[in-house]
Write the structure tokens for this entry.
Amino acid sequence: MGREEKRDLILTLLLFAVLMLGVSLAERYLNTYLIRILNTACIYVVAAVAYNLINGITGQFSLGPNGFMAIGGYTVAILMLPLVQKEQVYFLQPLIWPFNSFSFPSHLFLLALFLGGVAAALAALLIGIPTLRLRGDYLAIATFGFGEIINVLANNFIPLTNGALGIKGIPEYTNLWWTVNWAFWSVFMIKGLVNSSFGRALKAIRENEVAAEAMGVNLFRHKLLSFVLSGFFAGVAGGLFVTLISTVSPSLFTFTMTFNLLIIIVLGGLGSITGSVVTAFIFAFLQEILREVEAPITIGAWTFPGIPGMRMVVFSVLLVVMMIFYRRGLFGDKEISWQLIIDRIKGRNESGK
Amino acid sequence: MKVENKEPLLSLENLTVAFGGLVAVSDFSLQLFSGDLVGLIGPNGAGKTTVFNLITGQYRPTKGRVIFQGKDITGFSPDLVTTVGIARTFQNIRLFGNLTVLENVLVSFHVRLQSSFLAPMFSLPSYWREEKAIREEAYELLEAVGLADATKEEAQSLPYGEQRRLEIARALATHPSLLLLDEPAAGMNPQETQELMEFIKKMRDDFNLTIFLIEHDMKVVMGICERIAVMDFGMKIAEGTPEEIRNNPRVIEAYLGVED
Amino acid sequence: MTWVSFFQQIMNGVSLGSLYALLAIGYTLVYGILGFINFAHGDVFMLGAYFSFFMIGVFLLPWWLGVIIGVALCAIVGMSIERIAYRPLRDAPRISALITAVGVSFFIENLGLVTVGARPKGFPRPELMKNVYILAGARIQGVTFWVPIISVSVLLVLLYLVYRTKMGMAMRAVSKDMETTRLMGVDIDRIILYTFALGSALAGIGGVLWACKYPQINPLMGTFPGWKAFTAAVVGGIGNVVGAMVGGFIIGLTEIMIVAFFPGLSGYRDAFVFTILIIFLLVKPSGILGETLKEKV
């Protein structure tokens, strides 16, 4: 490993240590409300960098990440739900075998998350094989279609998903330790991939498919790799989400979730992993801030009724305005690297003399 | 001592391709031997790029075969064609615009990468060793084409002549035995053209290549090609040395541009 | 299943299909001319129902006048969307236009939720539609008749506009080759506005007729019909107006028939339509009447 790579790895691990310290402090001193937002933000980070991998880096426009999050979420829910809950929740039709006969103990949470990711990845494989042959908007529509089909299945396949009622009572294992770790390591792994030869191959596919293929890049296999990896992390994000809020239902993973992710990666910059991390946090906080707009406001003796749906109006206007005026997003397709930070610090030192 | 190789490196046999009702290439046959520098000329729309596309797999011939190093590679997908040792540049430059000059060349090394995708994800040292090796070779290639100073530039910001050189470097990075150049001199001034001609000959010798090129610039064609094939309306109408072609009445009749 | 109920289902299918056909035209026109999928089209459909609802219910206009104004408002909305959100992206990659369309769609839907609320409202149906007729032993609501009759009439008018007027010819020219048409001195912007006005008006009419058939209207009522209409446009051949009509009837009949023969699967009806869409995109993207294009290397 070269000198620069060693340095970068050490800096990254230092950052990790700092983050872990931060988490322990946060768990002790921050109020639950703020922690909840941070948890949500980290989950969005996982989902968003996964989404940016297929949309922004590889240039293959998928509109179906909500489906993969749903698969991951339901998988984790079904695995982790205690047997007692399984009896209670599935009162319309009992949960199908073998899931009705076992339940993961808490120390297998990581395994459940991993399996959620794998389930989503398998779905991505099955969906990707036929659809990744499509170009541009047709790919978008086909993936959208699959996302909707998964939603319909979640609503109707009652013996597995309990239909529209959803599943309640999922143990709340997710906390800052889990979300921050998953966010950090997802970014680490995906950035590692993007900065490697594979990342270059994916970007080449985005830039010019014909030329990429002529330089030896197998288009189908690489698109599929990107799609499946993207599905895996989306599934994990879904699993983290359901164990954060302790419920799962089809309404959690509708196209609106895809829309949220779309805003995040467009705002951050299609093709910038760093950008998605930043805007995932911005979005999570913005969601909360705007929730105030939706709630009733009391000023003195007057109570103004809340405006539900106002959040989405703001976000949709934001998206349209961005697409018209600022399509590059905050970071464009650029990343922040340790080298950049070091150069910046050095530059400032020199000019400060 | 140089051994005369009697087996052709590339053999195009009766290539025919039709799109809808239009026959773009009809019964095209040609042989290239190791070390050759062959030109393909003809009026616009004659089907020259289509022949290239048939060789490199962008199109599949409706009739005929492509034999390379004794193997039938007809209908191979473009990425597979690259792995057997044929590389190409494009008539309309197809660089990876938002990637840097270095990254453009590095893409060509990807096909020979040994590491799996998991290695860089977990930052394994085995991956970094490979990355270091390919970067070194990429730098050497960029030096050879004179782009060593521009490695960090965005490909789309390069001046036109440098973009063409980058395309060639990128093609060379795939370790080809046969290099197809589609109008490499397009848009170049006389001095650049002269440099290009010398560059192509040097590439052929330094990298042990066989070169097949399409060109409209007659100075280039007559200047460096040892053999020339002429196409018109999808068919080969003549083949021979520059002298023979220059004096061929059929060629003169179909197309013989003014020498620059 | 008896012949009578089968006949009823056929009528239902034709009725539904004609609505999908009306809606599908807008998708196919926009795709043919601008090359992207107007995600927000289904929401214009919803606006047709709501605008008319307010004209009739709040402004107390007679039914036919309320509908005409409502549909005209839809046309205006469609043109505004084009002018504000899509025109700036005329030269951008098609995916950017698609993303923007998604944004516009969410905007309209949520603006609707914010202004009128999520609770469904009852759409006023004219007497004509409410009557029940007995035909060949089957009880058929007036609306089941009138919807296809009105839709088909509108479609015929549309065919006339597209194939027999100068505007229509200009539209077809732009969809074949925008650059050349522009070079011939045609005002592209005006044609595109006209196209959106036309498509949106049809969607508005479709929305009103839909509300006559299913009188509970809500701000999200346009999403699924929109997707099914889009599927119809693809099945018939995207970019082809006649194809959109044919596709509409095919999808409408298929949907009704599947639910009729497999009532246990009715919850999956949307999944079926999406499956048809995906199959066509994979196997025959040019649809039944469309043409295929290849990329030049």
The beta strands of chain A are 167-168, 247-248, 297-299, 302-304. DSSP finds 15 helices and four strands in chain A.
